[in-house]
Amino acid sequence: MSPTDGAAQAAPHGAAAQARPVLSVRNLAKAFGSNVVLRDIDLDVRRGNVVALIGPSGSGKTTVLRSLNGLETPDAGTVTFAGPGTSAGPELALDFSAKVSKKEISDLRDRSAMVFQHYNLFPHMTVLQNVVEGPVQVQKRKRAEAVAEAEKLLARVGLADKRDAYPFELSGGQQQRVGIVRALALKPQLLLFDEPTSALDPELVGDVLGVIQELADEGWTMVIVTHELAFARQVADEVIFMDGGLVVERGPAAEVLRAPRQERTRQFVRRLLHEF
Amino acid sequence: MPLNWDLIWSSFGPIVTGAVTGTIPLTLASFAIGLALALLVALMRLSRNAVVSGLARFYVSVIRGTPLLVQLFVIFYGLPSLGVKLDPWPSAIIAFSLNIGGYAAEVIRAAILSVPKGQWEAGHTIGMSRGQSLRRIILPQAARVSVPPLSNTFISLVKDTSLASLILVTELFRNAQQIAAFSQEFMVLYLEAALVYWIICLALSSGQSVLEKRLDRYVAH
What we know:
The complex is a heterodimer of chains A (276) and B (221).
Chain A lengths: L14 H5 L1 E12 L2 E12 L3 E5 L6 H8 L7 E6 L10 E4 L6 H10 E4 L11 H12 L4 H14 L15 H13 L5 E5 L7 H17 L3 E4 L3 H7 L2 E6 L2 E7 H6 L4 H11 L3
Parallel strand pairs in A: 3-8, 3-9, 6-7, 7-8
Antiparallel strand pairs in A: 1-2, 1-4, 4-5, 9-10
Chain B lengths: L4 H41 L4 H16 L2 H11 L9 H27 L2 H9 L4 H31 L11 H12 L2 H30 L6
Helix pairs in contact in B: 1-2, 1-4, 1-7, 1-8, 2-4, 3-4, 4-6, 5-6, 6-8, 7-8
């Protein structure tokens, strides 16, 4: 399950790999009609790092995430993925100020995989079919090989015995773990999580967060939109606080969440931590 | 009124033959072609291109806004004046297919729209194109939703094929009519015809139940 298994993650976690970001976003902007959602977003994610996007609803954090996966098309800005290999692999650079082609969007999607708030599993497929659909149908890998890998991944998240179950037979926490495995099976350069625990019953949140923590420990590169500040503090290397389509504050998780410099961040963190 | 049992028994042969060699193949062929056409029209309706969706909308409007019998007559009796002469069978299949194409398109369009947007996005995030997502993710789910209304359309079609008797297609009802005219036993022959239609539709209804159960296996009850 380690990201170094994948061809897309072949680089060793050396100092050189650390220096160059896997993902660079510059001046990302997006409006839905007259509603400006992203004003000017910059973002760098280094290999093996975990970035948590926090902020009030409507701050644009989900739109950033969706833009990275080609589910939204920004109006302006650039998104650059480093070459997947050590140095030889091709870099992918998209400039949304110009018209981007379907091919470019498709290439962008190949670099990352999304875990959705509402899981979005395919209800007409079993757990195993959900997981191997991408590797077999899109990446054209051998079915037997994809199945073997999927079984290994399912076992890792404690769902080996659910391989032939349909999503409706699973709890929310189990469905979300399948959602995570479905993303992992694609061996993306970057994992994206869109409020992965917001739809879960409180007692199921821990299981899913535990899996994400393990992935972080294994060195997966991730961007997580979350309201779980305690979790963000624990798992994230960097926390970015967004509001009104702008980055208000960013820095190491401990700094931003324990001692925010901006008043707006302080208010938000205080309210969320004292909410319960 | 004494019942003419000899006639009742001897007329069942031609009526059932009419069903087997006329009504049933006509229904199956028209429904298959019509369904393919309907899928195309539904996708055109959902297109972001205004010309494409407008064209589909126009087609559906014409089909639903004119009687099936008139459509049948335009093709069989009308087209020859434009130099297009079609035999009864091709005329009937074209008319019924076009008709199904219009009605089923709306059913399929609604079924596609009923699949949550998140399913398209999940397809995209595992790298699928629009076409692939449609084929592998959206249509299988839309199929489940569209089975009951499409079964309705299918069962209506079985009965509507009786109109083909008016453009000389040898099918169930035309055979009944001919025997009725010859024997003057109208009530008996038309009730027999009705009975055979009913039996075909009963069979289709039970087929619908089986199909619905099969497609419901991945839904919570």
